[in-house]
Amino acid sequence: MEAFFLKWFVALLLMLSMNLIPALAAEEADRPTGAEQKQIRLLDKATRVSHESVQENERIDMSLSVAPERFEGVDPDDYYGYCTLKAEDRKNGNHKLEEAYEDLAEGFGNKRIEIDMTEHRLTPAEFEKVFFACLGDFPQYFWLRSGYGYYLDDDDEYITEVLPDYEQGLLAPNKVSEFLMWAQTVLRASGVTPTMTDYEKAVMLHDELAARITYDYDALDAYNEAYAIVDDEERAEALEICKANFPGVHAAYGAMVKGRAVCDGYSKAYQYLLYRVGILSHVATGVANGGGHAWNLVLLDGDWYYTDLTWDDGVVNVNGTSQEVLFHAYFNMTTAQSEGSTHILDNPYAMPICTATQDSYFTKHGTIVNQPDADVVGQQLKKGPIVRLCVTGDMAEALKWMGSQDNIRAVLPKANLNMIHSWICFSSGNELFAMFVCDRVGIGENMTLEIGCIEPKKVKIYQAVYDENNVLVDAGMTEGTVDLQTGVTRVKANYLEHEETFKTVKYFLWDGTGGLKPLYDVAEMEY
């Protein structure tokens, strides 16, 4: 009798905590830690194949990564995982891993429930390497999950058949067209053009996705609870419920279409858009801060870098509420920098040692400092009301410096500013990020107020003017113009008529429904 064994490997990748410290509030941001760990589940074949079936002849073009004609997309023959396996084959004098990868990719692309692996004679360890190399190469196959079952031959040595784990709710043909439509929408919204440098394309896609995606903590909690269930059958049922309730959060689909994802959804969406504009990327997997995580390997100008989009999509506490802030602390890191932030790789195949720094965000912008000072901050404020610095020294000291009114007063002449009304700053990793409300010209002139705003797309600003007794003397709405790439909001200040009586001015964001919330809750500069 033919002997067979069915094993189930699960390696889902989730986001961890993010330590963001508001400088003046002196408290950590509320970003919980959690991750799905690798586990083994034993399921019988009947359970697996009873899932919703798909058409055997439904074909999905593997050139899904190829962009519209104005961009030159990445050729699947150049995918990192594929090339890594081919290099290993050359060392071994065969084409075993390469050919198995090709069959596996074809099966995933056509949503095959069972994929024949008999001729490749792969051990389970060899197959795991091929599977995850393929999984890390194809974000466009968003229905593919990071689990699989398999059968062994009579000698229990080689895999004969693989049963991929697909997310059933994402198998419908209309999901592909929906995904492609949203991908094109996000690509256009990013402002990326073919004439840009690869660095410019990468940072603009990074920023656009961070603005679009919200980390799905409800999905994180539900999946963690499901994986904590001891009974195999109950755990499998709980996981199916998670997939139904949180469609595509582990995939590029959830990030692109729904705008909600966990870490592997972030990394796959970023990888897919990089493919579309001709930049090679791969999903890196491993452990960060003690839990499972996913981020990106990116090739720019001939050098490899690591980028963690999830951790750059920061959450900070402002006036008691959580606000998302875009950071660049984890954009284009070296291996040493990524390991320093506790990103430890566990891909079952070779990953590069990244040493280049010329395309790191702070190298490009010349903002690497040991500590901030008036000259450094002033030079940044000349460009706009958002300051980003890479601090190589003590971050606590840097935040303390930025929290001092005396230090900020000293910045005014360095930045050619008339007034700094208020400011707030945070840190993420080695990045110090500050936002200011400041005047570019003097009182009595046609004043323009510049606001570094957490939510730059909200362009209506409510202005309240107070006298020296803190009595409200004037208030009203003022329209602003927004630079979505820099996050700068500019409004015409209309408090000049109160020049002899006002002492402070406070600014609020209008939420579009009549509700107001303060821009910042910090001490303000006196006039």
Q: What value does the average pLDDT take?
A: 80
- How can the largest sheet be summarized? 10 strands, mixed
Radius of gyration based on Cα positions: 26 Å
User: Percentage of helical residues?
Assistant: 25-40%
In total, the number of strands is 23
> Low-confidence spans: pLDDT under 50, at least 5 residues?
1-69, 521-527
Task: Tell me what the structure shows.
The chain is of the alpha+beta class. Strands 14, 15, 16, 17, 18, 19, 20, 21, 22 and 23 form a ten-stranded mixed beta sheet that branches. A five-stranded antiparallel beta sheet has the order 2-1-4-5-3, with helices on one face. A four-stranded antiparallel beta sheet has the order 10-9-8-13. Strand 14, helix 14 and strand 15 form a beta-alpha-beta unit. The radius of gyration is 26 Å and the shape is elongated. The termini are far apart. The relative contact order is 0.11.
